[in-house]
């Protein structure tokens, strides 16, 4: 029998000799609910990505979905296929009152769950969906849309912009001019590459659109002249290079430009040049172009195609816009 090594501990040898039961060892606790939540979120994300949604939209939806899943799994001790009407009521009360979400955010949760239960083929949300539509639970609050911008206000913004310090003011001003002429979504202009542009005629093919349908837009001679002036001072102009680049040669930072735009609008409000109740953002240029085209007599169906709307109802929103109503009232007052 081997002797105990000098300095050894008899208790250590004892522990090594005896057979231990696995139950005696501390086990790492597995959070099965979290695993299930992550699995569901992953499956839903795969479906949304396959549908062609933008990554930012997928990320936002994933964050909201996890709020819902965490609530039903941990607070209600339910699963996605065992929830019922009272559970949905409890969740939306939680979102509205405990999380202090605004009505617009609550509506986003409702739309998300509608899509989620449809895509994942669970039927237990259907009754709540029908009942909510009948009782107008998520439509009674008016959703305020961005205001349309006009040429006069846009020119004031451009004046402020080119008077600022910084190396990107020409780029930013050119971006706004092109955004105004084309009536594009911000992402559509931001993602323009040289291969998609006829820089002699001022014709642009939009390939990465919200509706996944390619469309063509144009710009004025003045905007084209400005665009070519700006591009003369740019570096690499390969077919896959963006027209509007960041300082690091990547795609232009839309959020940064949007913040600069809103900052100028707020400055004009303080000066009294823009009404305080005007809600102007970069997307207001698209609204403004729609109203402008309709005011000039361009047929509704043509405006629909130019802006890339999927339905004529969306375009009709602009035909009944506050800006057009105000102009109509001005005309009526003059003939009374």
Poorly predicted ranges: none
Strand content: under 5%
Mean pLDDT: 87
The CATH topology label of the largest domain is hpI Integrase, Chain A
Q: What is the name of the CATH architecture of the largest domain?
A: Orthogonal Bundle
With strands numbered from the N-terminus, the spatial order across the biggest sheet is 1-2-3
The number of distinct structural domains comes to: 2
Radius of gyration: 29 Å
Number of helices: 15
Order of helices and strands: HHHHHHHHHEEEHHHHHH
What would you call the shape?
globular
Classify the secondary structure makeup into a structural class: mainly alpha
Please report the first level of CATH classification, the CATH class of the largest domain.
Answer: Mainly Alpha
The helix fraction, in percent, is 55-70%
Fourth-level CATH superfamily of the largest domain: Intergrase catalytic core
Give the terminus-to-terminus CA distance: 120 Å
| Largest sheet properties | 3 strands, antiparallel
Total strands: 3
Explain the layout of strands and helices.
Blueprint: H1 10-17, H2 32-50, H3 55-75, H4 85-98, H5 103-119, H6 126-134, H7 151-162, H8 169-182, H9 186-190, E1 197-198, E2 203-206, E3 215-218, H10 221-232, H11 254-271, H12 284-295, H13 300-307, H14 312-319, H15 322-335
Helix pairs in contact: 2-3, 3-5, 7-11, 8-10, 8-12, 13-14
